[in-house]
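Record pair follows.
FIRST:
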Amino acid sequence: MTDTAINTARPDSLAGAGVGDYVALLKPRVMSLVVFTGLVGLLLAPGAIHPVLATVAVLCIAVGAGASGAINMWYDRDIDAVMIRTRGRPLPMGRMEPGEALGFGTVLAIGSVLVMGLAVNWPAAALLALTVAFYVFVYTMWLKRRTPQNIVIGGAAGAFPPMIGWAAVTGDVSLVSLALFAIIFMWTPPHFWALSLYRSEDYARAGVPMMPVVLGRRETQRQILLYSVLLVPVTLTPWWLGASGLVYAAGAAVLGIGLVALALRVLVDRDGRNQDRAAKHLFAYSILYLFLVFALLVADRAVMQVFAS
């Protein structure tokens, strides 16, 4: 869809972007989970980092994530305009010129990487640059409109922040930071496929080949359950690596059982309306689930330090 076509559904003239519009470009709800997982990676990493540098690192992760969101909204403004979930965003509503969003995102992306490199270290900056590039070029521009596996492969972009936080302290990548990456990578498909189940008409209208649109609801339900089951042992990897204790392992297992139970509910409920309700419950729980899994890692580390002292 061209900009001209988009304009027919928008106000006749741009009212001018406000602060709230620029904040919306950053996708703050998505950013909050990204920042939290990045912070956990930083807290779990061995060694020490000055609190000021730690704050700078977390801010750079936040700004980099926001930059990715802004560029994503610039590129996806055509499909955002026809999806109910996204048509209220600044660009489809005509409150901002596309060039403003692109320029804003580009400046933030470059700035966040440079500050991370100059103030913290360049390995963390390189991972941050890779995260932004992967989200923008691999997921947004290449995969999203071409394959129902867009979320599976593209989910890597959202899985990098713990590795960035870890690298901010250590300057390297380890098996533990890769385990944190794997948790988010495996969590992403059931999380977004649950959303796509009850928003499938939206995606179909926009021509986005999400799995329910291309392969159907039943196959999507099966894939959600498969990834949910596989996610449980993946969450136990930090324990197997000795990076966490039984407090984390037990908590992650219980949370995983809850996730699998909800995925089963999505699978067995064949009534369309109830399916949507079950998918909404799974989507909401999946957000809480990831937050609690990463919070448990920090809590477990605190418990281990208390008993070690």
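SECOND:
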Amino acid sequence: MTTRAPTRDLLIEVGTNLIAEHGYNATGINAVLKEAGVPKGCFYHYFSSKEAFGLAVIEAAAVDDEVSVQALLGDVRTVPLERLKAFFAAKRADMVACKHRRGCLIGNLGQEMSAHSDVLRDALDAIWQRRERQLAACLQDGQHDGSIRRDMDAAALASFILAGWQGALLRSKIVRDCTPLVDFECTLLAFLKP
């Protein structure tokens, strides 16, 4: 097992925060270096380009998110609908904590970068697919126990839910309020009932 250098980790952490707040294109390397308090040579020691840095930020964010999402959606001790409610509650809490300014880093970067970088787009798509599989597994558990409707494919339903949730996150950022998230969740839970 390899461990990452503390300076590399610091750059990724600072970059994640700045990109989440301002976007990839508006976050310059100099701003990251200034916020991290490290010289430019350190950046290029760890990253060959801004795109390589962006990829590292995406991968680090994905690992953290996948662990937390799996803890919520994959907890087989909890009934599937309660897992979904816990997932939505955690994401709403994240929005409140950032005062509705950030939303989902992966979703935000997907909107911003999909037309500009195939490397980042492919990484974001892979992350999105893993997240859909996590959600689909939870939905399948609910279909098997009869608490979630069985007339729809779980994978297609997971894709639909995540796309709708991203829209609700965007709307929540615009209005700076959780109402779109609550409305989405209530409508979805009613829709999922058998």
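COMMENT: The chain has one domain: 55-192.
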